Structure formats: C-alpha cells, structure tokens
Amino acid sequence: MLHYVPAMIFSSWLGTYLDLILVEKQLYSFPIRPLPHIFSINIAFTLVLLPIATACFLCFAEKITKAQRMALALLLGFVMPISEQVAEKVGLFHHSSEWSHLYSFFGYIVFMWVVYKFHHLYSCKSRIKKH
After folding, report:
1. What are the pLDDT digits (tens) for 97-111?
2. How many other CB atoms are found less than 10 A from the CB of residue 97?
3. CA–CA distance from 53 to each of 5, 46, 95 (Å)?
4. Which InterPro entries match (predicted)?
C-alpha cells in the first residue's frame, strides 16, 4: 500500500487545486464543510476521501487489463455525477446553473487517467532507481 502514497498525495493536491479553482469561479460550492471559516472547499473530501479512493482505484486498476481499466474509468465517470447529485440533495454540494454534469463525467475520467499515469511513471522510476 505504501507505493500508492505518492499518487495519493498527487490526487489530493490536484483535487484540492481543482476544487479551489472551480469554487472561486463559483461553478460549485460546499455548503457543509469542515472549518468553513478557513476553507472554501471540503477538505475532508480532498485530504481523506480522495486519497483513499485513489489507492483503491490504483490497487484494482493494476490487476486488470487496459480495456478493463478503460471500462472502469467510464463506469466511475458515470457514477460520480450521480453521487454529486445525491450529495446536492442532502446539502453537501451545490452546483451553479452554469454547471453541466457532463463536466464531472469527463473530468473524473481525465482525473483518473492523469493519476494512473502519474502512478505508473512514478512507480517505474522508483523501480529503475532500486536496480
């Protein structure tokens, strides 16, 4: 599990900055979040949930074929906009009228691809340094 830590940190960093940018552009907001007087984003998501989800995704993605990874990314791309809508209904998330859930669909697919590529490149470089 330790070899996922760099990708977990990277996903947390990337998710945090994407959230900061999109919240600043007022495309979405987090009405309920930890330390709201300090942070405009939900740091529980970007610092805890996203890294754990990244490790689970990478653990599973490493064990399947490229075609299966593409199918997994598509599946998660479909699931994330639905989970965002559920989060909106319970008051954890709010999208502006300018937001399209297609952004989430494609955004999560690209996000997962970038994180997977980062992990793959990082893990290949660490294997080379060990030899």
Report:
1. 999 999 999 999 999
2. 6
3. 12, 10, 22
4. CBO0543-like
